[in-house]
Amino acid sequence: MANISRRDLLKGLAVSAFAAATGRGAPWLGNEPLDFLVVGDSIIWGQGLEEKDKFYTLTADWLRSLGRDVHLKLKAHSGSSLKFHPEEAAAYRKIGRDETFYYKPEVNVGFPSTWKQLEDAAAEYRAAGNNRGADLIMLTGGITDITVRKVLDPFRDKDLLPPLIQKYCRDDMFDVIDLAATNNPNALIAVVGYFPMISPSTPSSKLLNHWLESMDVPDIFKPLLNNSLMRPLFFKRLKNKGIIRSRIWYNESNKYLAEAVNNLNAKYGKTRAVFIRSPITEDTTLETPGTLLFRMNNNGSVEDPLFLSRSADCNDALPKLKKETGIDYPVRLCEIAAVGHPNPAGSRAYAEVIKTALAPHFAGGHAS
Q1: pTM of the model
Q2: Is 338 helix (H, G, I), strand (E, B) or coil?
Q3: Percentages of the chain per state (helix, strand, coil), in multiples of 5
Q4: DSSP labels for 57-79?
Q5: 139: β partners
Q6: What is the pLDDT of residues 55-99, one digit of tens each?
Q7: CATH 3.30.70.360 fits 26-197+249-362, yes or no
Q8: How far apart are the first and last CA of the chain?
Q9: What residues does each domain of the chain span?
């Protein structure tokens, strides 16, 4: 019998106890490849980031550092809704188009939905002879169903926002992760949270510039609206309302995503999913001095390395989509879509909290 240290023995007993308590095996102890499925919207996709900087890539690299061969299957893309919205589905049916019609993943359209991504992944696993599916699934979802514009809109009744967040971040998210659990019976599902969109530390001049760019206001009018005289007169109150709505989004989305995860675990009587809170706070959100998000340049471009290629793809795809189906996704919003998404430092921060959350399941409790 090989010599086993007391530390290794205790670690092994702890791993076994954890596996028994959760009903899961101990995948970090095996040698078989680990199937890692990534589905969802632009946050999990890593809008604007190069592949090496995306936090699913950093997570896969960490898993490989544990000695595992990781097979990554990527279905996420910018704009993905949790489910295929009925009005978009109807527009697609009219022209005989399937939900899986391909768009480049930086182009922020709602389809394929996260639901469809899971269905397609399950079919691909089965076709490859893998009937157990993924071992780890990671996703984000909920914001695209509401839209950032509606979350921050200072002219909307803030009391109408929590019910929307409940519908998508709890009810629809539960449906989606329940499908994930059914199609992938051995998988741990990591639901990753969102962050505050703006804060008091977001400069008013920068924030107003973002809003004007998102509405595609012509350049000639911007200095007339965004200056030291006009901002205090009409924008301060709107910004304060936006901050209140951002905080509602942050608090309620965290609450309801966690509830969706808890409800799934209660249904199965064991840990099938974990909720991972965002590491980005009001101190590091949009355009703050220490921001972990991509900034917008003064000329309306975005500092991410994919800005030019994404702009070309948006201008190629979205007018055709509107002409063919009537579905209208604004080109300008697509061009600047990386604004407010994690930059490389923000992605690394996400990867660190993900490692900490997954370590008990895939590394015997050790994230390093």
Answers
A1: 0.90
A2: coil
A3: 55, 10, 40
A4: HHHHHHHHHTT--EEEEE---TT
A5: 39, 191
A6: 999 999 999 999 989 999 999 999 999 999 999 999 999 999 999
A7: no
A8: 29
A9: 26-197+249-362
